[in-house]
Amino acid sequence: MGTYVFKRIITIIPIFLVATLITFTMIHLSPVDPAEAYFTAAHVQATDEMLEQKRHELGLDQPLLIQYVNTLIKICQFDFGISYVTSKPVLEEITSRMSATVQLTMGSLLIAIFVSVPIGFLAGIRKNGVIDHFSRLLSFIGASIPSFWLGYLLIFFFSVKLDIFPVEGTGTWKHLILPSVTLAFPLIALYTRLLRANVLDNLQEPYVFFARTRGIHERVIMGKHVLRIAISPMITGLGMNLGNLLTGAIIVEAVFSWPGFGRYFIEAIFNRDVPVIQGYVLLAAGLFLISNLIVDLIQMYIDPRISRKGSQLQ
């Protein structure tokens, strides 16, 4: 098990290096001059001498290979540069907003799990029943409604009409409900259908038949065996969506004026704040890799055969 975990961690390094290379290349292929972007963000009309001096300060007059190596060294030191707009370290700016995005992400994931698991499981073991039909309707609606429209609908009914939850901002648990539900709704639709399909597939497996012939209680078969195996692909989906939620909850944060990481990234794009954009992309890549590693470890705990298969393949 330890060898498998070590090998999985080692594989992250080349993937992250590729991500840094792609990010570095895309930024340098962009028509935006970082020196010009710096002065534009500062609302300063720069002369040619000022642009040349700033390019020298940013190291843009060095060969691309040297620039890339220097970028890697700074990344290893958790130095993503200085924001052109706020003149503060990018890492400090990101971490100050990350807590709000983490709250939103965790809230939406908890809602998605606690709603989709029971509905998807019951829909699978009671095919063509009331819950199954409800799960199909829920999945259809969740896959069809855009997040921004759902957010405005929730604001209209629960904030404007009923005055139950605040319209925007943060502060209390009530501020978290509507944006979390908005972000969780598509996940509920996805995980409900995924779990239902997996439960139906596992009910056809021989181990269920043999467990029943041995006289094992139906609740034990469903809860200890069927659900445990059927939920495995859903956990994999959670790993993919965790990184996406942490870095991609941009629309929901904009609708509810949520001071999170995604909204900050949109502002950086409009301001052409290159260090922030680069830091966001690299951090997003790191979060995706870490979240998938965590999911792999959870999957290995649920099904120890994964580590044995991984050891055999490698």
Automatic annotation (TrEMBL):
<dbReference type="InterPro" id="IPR045621">
    <property type="entry name" value="BPD_transp_1_N"/>
</dbReference>
<dbReference type="InterPro" id="IPR014156">
    <property type="entry name" value="Nickel_NikB"/>
</dbReference>
<feature type="transmembrane region" description="Helical">
    <location>
        <begin position="9"/>
        <end position="29"/>
    </location>
</feature>
<feature type="transmembrane region" description="Helical">
    <location>
        <begin position="106"/>
        <end position="125"/>
    </location>
</feature>
<keyword id="KW-0406">Ion transport</keyword>
<keyword id="KW-0533">Nickel</keyword>
<feature type="transmembrane region" description="Helical">
    <location>
        <begin position="172"/>
        <end position="191"/>
    </location>
</feature>
<keyword id="KW-0921">Nickel transport</keyword>
<feature type="transmembrane region" description="Helical">
    <location>
        <begin position="229"/>
        <end position="256"/>
    </location>
</feature>
<keyword id="KW-0813">Transport</keyword>
<feature type="domain" description="ABC transmembrane type-1">
    <location>
        <begin position="98"/>
        <end position="299"/>
    </location>
</feature>
<comment type="similarity">
    <text>Belongs to the binding-protein-dependent transport system permease family. OppBC subfamily.</text>
</comment>
<dbReference type="Pfam" id="PF19300">
    <property type="entry name" value="BPD_transp_1_N"/>
</dbReference>
<keyword id="KW-0812">Transmembrane</keyword>
<dbReference type="InterPro" id="IPR035906">
    <property type="entry name" value="MetI-like_sf"/>
</dbReference>
<keyword id="KW-1133">Transmembrane helix</keyword>
<keyword id="KW-0472">Membrane</keyword>
<feature type="transmembrane region" description="Helical">
    <location>
        <begin position="276"/>
        <end position="298"/>
    </location>
</feature>
<keyword id="KW-1003">Cell membrane</keyword>
<comment type="subunit">
    <text>The complex is composed of two ATP-binding proteins (NikD and NikE), two transmembrane proteins (NikB and NikC) and a solute-binding protein (NikA).</text>
</comment>
<dbReference type="InterPro" id="IPR050045">
    <property type="entry name" value="Opp2B"/>
</dbReference>
<dbReference type="InterPro" id="IPR000515">
    <property type="entry name" value="MetI-like"/>
</dbReference>
<protein>
    <recommendedName>
        <fullName>Nickel import system permease protein NikB</fullName>
    </recommendedName>
</protein>
<dbReference type="GO" id="GO:0015099">
    <property type="term" value="F:nickel cation transmembrane transporter activity"/>
</dbReference>
<feature type="transmembrane region" description="Helical">
    <location>
        <begin position="137"/>
        <end position="160"/>
    </location>
</feature>
<dbReference type="GO" id="GO:0005886">
    <property type="term" value="C:plasma membrane"/>
</dbReference>
<dbReference type="Pfam" id="PF00528">
    <property type="entry name" value="BPD_transp_1"/>
</dbReference>
